[in-house]
Amino acid sequence: MGGEAKEQLVIRGLHVAVEGQEILKGVDLTIGRGEVHALMGPNGSGKSTLGYAIMGHPSYEVTAGTIHLVAADGGRRDLLAMEPDERARAGVFLAFQRPMSIPGVRLADFLRHAVTNVRNPDRKEGEELMPMKEFRGELKAKMAELSMDPEFSRRYVNDGFSGGEMKRAEILQLAMLRPKFAILDETDSGLDADAVRLASESIARIGGAEMGILVITHHEQLLEHNVPLQTHVMLGGRIVESGGPELAAELHKRGYERIRSAYPEAAAVERAMQDEKRAAAEPTAV
pLDDT tens track of the chain, all 286 residues? Predict the structure, then answer.
């Protein structure tokens, strides 16, 4: 039994609000290192909110529940007590659906700082970075593994990148940082079929037994080379159903009508959330 224990990301009873509106309404999820989990659901169901809450985005207020990193020996670290940079240093990574551009900062320089901080969590700003020769060798090897042009790392972070280039930059970060747990927020969005296939293959190369991955997606293509141990369906701010990879295939082909019929209370919450969102977006009459 003891030999089978592994580190886990454990979420219990998570409630999250954005600008006063509750989006997540009690999420339970456990991901072990070496496992791939898929999270699917209609637009606005709370999938991206879960990713941002795990990473500690300041606009996403956790109003109830817990998120812990649980070690193989049972020791627990409270993720909610950490700042976002501390969560990253602890081994948690979020690949953004729409990454920010950082003009003037080369991708290689950005990665050297990030990799140094993750591998030396106690490093203070201004202290020595990872040796340049070691970093360059590792970066070159990872880019070759991902079939990326070395010139790509000399460009400014996401500045002028196409959608596909942004996603490839996120995958390169994933490869270099080697987190314990990675949340991939719709890495397939805006990509054509060939680009999605390439992304799926790249993620599979990087993952392996040492990384727990939560793939947030609308489609099953990204899961082609990353077969999920479990597929979770989110509706109305909760995970209402979990299954194997066949559930992801069903949702991709048939949509969410069966899910809405099977979970009418969650479907009613979903409709209410959408109505509230539309009302908030409408201009106020003068």
Answer: 445 678 999 999 999 999 989 999 999 999 999 999 999 999 889 999 999 999 999 999 999 999 999 999 999 999 999 999 999 999 999 998 778 889 999 999 999 999 999 888 888 887 889 999 999 999 999 999 888 899 999 999 999 988 888 888 898 999 999 999 999 988 777 677 887 888 888 888 888 788 999 999 877 778 888 899 999 999 999 999 999 999 999 998 999 999 999 999 999 999 998 888 777 767 655 4
Tell me the whole-structure pTM to 2 decimals.
Answer: 0.90
Structure tokens at 143: 């880019």
Max distance between CA atoms of the chain, in angstroms, equals: 67
Please give the distance of CA 97 from its chain centroid, rounded to a whole number: 9
Residue 213 three-state SS: strand
Distance CA 44, CA 34 (A): 29
Domain edges within the chain: 2-95+180-281
Helices marked H in 98-244: 107-119, 132-145, 163-177, 193-206
**Cα within 13 Å of Cα(261), Cβ side:** 4
Contact by Cβ (8 Å): 59, 11: no
Alpha-carbon distances, residue 4 vs 33, 194, 206 (angstroms): 11, 37, 22
CATH number of 2-95+180-281: 3.40.50.300
